[in-house]
């Protein structure tokens, strides 16, 4: 043992004068516990066998037994006991002889980490008494039979969440006798949304089933005019995932005594989910080159990512926002914190937190990409976690925004949250953590401005409704979409919305005034445009419409710019430029079509098949500019999944994935992935090429392990085509 302690000492920082013990921030490390703790000199005739001693401990830890059933932990793929805090669980102790209450004295000890201390909650002695107090540590005997006793044990509702070691201690006149270290009696204690005294208590059973126990979910993507959805396998109950999630807290060096607090856990997890500045779980990549890694769009769930990180301890490549959010959701649900994945359409990434996104136009009315630094993401995914906020005034508990995508630093690290959704809605952005940043993501204005030759800045247009138009999450108990925009903001243009903004400004959100710049928009002409829905690889048209509401005759020099963009709104390149002159009759409407050919965009297309169109028009008679922008996504073909044979837990079944290549080119080096929690572990297959119009068929055999309604999720990925998904609900019968 001495060798191991030496090596551990080298890793530990030297002790300083401020603390008596090194930091206790690893759930994995242990201390040695003496099996005989003598009170003094031991007389020669002492034989421990003369006293009560433990022969065996039964933990009732099988999925079908009482503990995992009552604690809603029967789905965890783990042989150990897993319980939720603040709720009783049962164990049975077999002694070498019948237990005599007046004469024998024993107690339980729960230990976590390497330096257990009672005042830190890392060493917990549990005495046997007559009554159990709700939400406080205690044990009582419920049943005695020959040499055995059954105990009902209550854990504290604020207890540390993690893996505890269990010892049974027996008092003798000469010292304390303990059971030896036995990992089979290790007990995982998790958060308990079913317990009223737990900080994560959620009172609706349907919501608990969705936000804690559902191991698949839906990611909404695409854009505001074309909402797409795909399934994501959270897999929080799969083998080794619970250990991987506990390892994340060790990696973040969160002191064990802080691990009963969901606020602290969320804050450190939002930093460790991304690899920036702490070598965390996922490395982000938004540049469309994913060499030496997996393209973000290829992942079908969190399990592969977490297990790879747990074994390699190195960041897994690559992720984008929904991948960070999917893995974060797995982490939260696995530990028992209710959580959901949120999508905000037209999400502002405001670099200088002034509540406005500045788009600078050049003389022709084109956006000047050199000096425009802010961007609007087509969509951005984050998470909400449910908890009380005793650190904030009353009323700000409930859903909290947490975001693992590295966008901006918070207190010097790439992390975000927890920020109270209620505080964001009412503009109370003074409350920790990172509320101003999230407030800007859903509330910024877009300001188009142009610099005149003499240096004055002219604001051409202010768009107050483009950002944060729609905020959604998966419905409870169904696969549909639930809109939650009104949880984040009041009705556009309402009195409450004004008030919320004024409150946010009062609390220090910078809001630039437009007084120092000229702003006199052209109000008597309206311009808009529509993009035709189109399948990847086909031609489509953009229709620009003008409505002249005045008695004047106008001509408009109109400019359309088509850009291929990352879903973050950052332009890769301009693939279409088209300008024309439009004649606008008094009180008349007119429409102009611009055709976009597939040959113009196919060679440069990025993985989300995302376009961004800017249309600007100068009214020649007044010199005023009209500007508007829209993102659009092409229809991407999907995968078909079929099953054959009967679907029974424990019996082999077959799954087939089919795909037809719709493009005018051969697809090279195609990777298919297929997974389904409780049905099959992730399978991968590579195909060298798929010619135009030909169909690929991949058949997989598997043995489902869990009965019930399960979901199969597949993805196809290659350089020319990404974000190709398919899914299928399957009902697995009991054997």
Write the layout of secondary structure elements.
Elements (H helix, E strand, L loop, with lengths): L1 H10 L24 E3 L15 E5 L7 H5 L10 E4 L3 E8 L10 E6 L11 E5 L10 E8 L2 E7 L7 E11 L2 E4 L8 E4 L14 H9 L2 E8 L2 E8 L7 H11 L10 H11 L9 E3 L18 H10 L3 E4 L1 H15 L3 E11 L6 E6 L13 E13 L10 E5 L6 E2 L2 E2 L4 E2 H5 L9 H9 L1 E7 L5 E7 L6 E5 L6 E3 L1 H4 L6 H12 L18 E7 L8 E9 L5 E12 L5 E14 L4 E8 L1 H4 L8 E10 L4 E10 L6 E5 L8 E8 L6 E10 L3 E11 L4 E8 L5 E11 L2 E12 L3
Parallel strand pairs: 3-11, 14-15, 17-23
Antiparallel strand pairs: 1-10, 2-4, 4-8, 5-6, 5-9, 7-8, 9-10, 9-11, 12-13, 16-18, 16-25, 18-19, 19-22, 20-21, 23-24, 25-26, 27-28, 28-31, 29-30, 29-32, 32-33, 34-35, 35-38, 36-37, 36-39, 39-40
Helix pairs in contact: 4-6
């Amino acid at each position: 043992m001495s060798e191991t302690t030496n090596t551990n000492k080298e890793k530990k920082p030297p002790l300083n004068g401020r603390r008596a013990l090194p930091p206790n921030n690893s759930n994995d490390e242990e201390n040695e516990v003496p099996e005989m703790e003598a009170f003094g000199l031991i007389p020669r005739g002492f034989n421990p066998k003369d006293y009560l001693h433990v022969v065996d401990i039964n933990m009732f830890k099988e999925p079908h037994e009482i503990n995992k059933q009552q604690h809603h932990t029967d789905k965890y793929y783990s042989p150990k006991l897993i319980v939720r805090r603040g709720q009783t669980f049962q164990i049975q102790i077999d002694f070498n002889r019948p237990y005599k209450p007046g004469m024998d004295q024993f107690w339980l000890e729960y230990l976590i980490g390497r330096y257990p201390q009672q005042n830190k909650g890392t060493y917990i002695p549990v005495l046997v008494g007559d009554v159990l107090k709700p939400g406080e540590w205690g044990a009582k005997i419920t049943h005695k039979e020959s040499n055995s006793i059954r105990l009902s044990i209550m854990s504290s509702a604020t207890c540390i969440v993690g893996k505890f070691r269990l010892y049974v201690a027996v008092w003798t006149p000469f010292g304390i006798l303990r059971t030896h270290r036995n990992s089979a009696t290790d007990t995982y204690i998790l958060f308990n949304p079913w317990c009223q005294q737990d900080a994560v208590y959620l009172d609706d059973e349907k919501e608990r089933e969705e936000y804690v126990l559902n191991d698949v979910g839906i990611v909404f993507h695409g854009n505001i005019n074309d909402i797409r959805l795909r399934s994501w396998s959270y897999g929080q109950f799969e083998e080794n995932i619970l250990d991987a999630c506990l390892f994340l807290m060790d990696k973040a060096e969160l002191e064990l005594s802080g691990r009963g607090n969901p606020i602290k856990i969320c804050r450190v997890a939002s930093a460790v989910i991304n690899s920036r500045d702490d070598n965390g779980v996922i490395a982000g990549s938004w540049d469309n080159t994913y060499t030496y890694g997996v393209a973000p769009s290829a992942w079908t769930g969190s399990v592969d990512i977490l297990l790879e990180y747990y074994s390699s301890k190195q960041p897994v490549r690559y992720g984008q926002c929904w991948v960070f959010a999917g893995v974060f959701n797995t982490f939260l649900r696995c530990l028992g914190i209710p959580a959901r994945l949120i999508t905000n359409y037209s999400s502002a990434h405001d670099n200088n937190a002034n509540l406005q996104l500045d788009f600078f136009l050049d003389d022709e009315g084109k956006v000047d990409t050199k000096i425009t630094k802010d961007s609007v993401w087509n969509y951005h995914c984050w998470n909400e976690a449910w908890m009380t906020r005793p650190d904030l005034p009353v009323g700000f508990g409930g859903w909290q925004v947490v975001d693992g995508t590295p966008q901006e630093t918070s207190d010097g690290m790439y992390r975000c949250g927890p920020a109270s959704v209620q505080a964001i809605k009412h503009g109370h952005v003074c409350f920790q953590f990172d509320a101003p940043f999230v407030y800007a993501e859903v509330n910024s204005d877009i300001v188009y401005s142009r610099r005149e030759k003499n240096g004055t800045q002219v604001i051409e247009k202010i768009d107050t409704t483009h950002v944060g138009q729609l905020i959604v999450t998966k419905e409870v108990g169904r696969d549909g979409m639930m809109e939650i925009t009104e949880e984040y903001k009041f009705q556009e243009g309402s009195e409450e919305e004004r008030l919320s903004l004024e409150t946010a400004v009062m609390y220090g959100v910078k809001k630039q005034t437009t007084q120092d710049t000229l702003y006199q928009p052209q109000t008597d002409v309206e311009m808009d445009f529509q993009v035709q829905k189109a399948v990847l690889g086909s031609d489509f048209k953009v229709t620009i419409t003008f409505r002249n509401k005045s008695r004047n005759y106008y001509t408009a020099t109109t400019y359309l710019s088509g850009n291929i963009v990352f879903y973050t709104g950052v332009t890769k390149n301009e693939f279409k430029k088209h300008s024309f002159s439009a004649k606008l009759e008094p009180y008349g409407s007119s429409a102009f079509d611009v055709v976009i050919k597939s040959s113009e965009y196919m060679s440069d297309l990025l993985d989300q098949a995302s376009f961004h169109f800017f249309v600007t028009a100068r009214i020649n008679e007044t010199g005023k500019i009209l500007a508007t922008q829209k993102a659009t996504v092409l229809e991407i073909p999907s995968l078909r999944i079929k099953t054959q044979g009967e679907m029974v837990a424990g019996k082999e079944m077959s799954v087939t994935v089919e795909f037809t290549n719709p493009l005018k080119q051969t697809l090279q080096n195609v990777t298919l992935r297929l997974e389904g929690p409780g049905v099959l572990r992730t399978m991968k297959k590579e195909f060298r090429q798929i010619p135009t119009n030909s169909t690929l068929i991949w058949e997989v055999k598997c043995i489902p392990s869990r009965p019930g309604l399960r979901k199969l999720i597949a993805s196809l990925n290659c350089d020319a085509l990404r974000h190709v998904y398919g899914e299928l609900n399957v009902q697995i019968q009991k054997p």
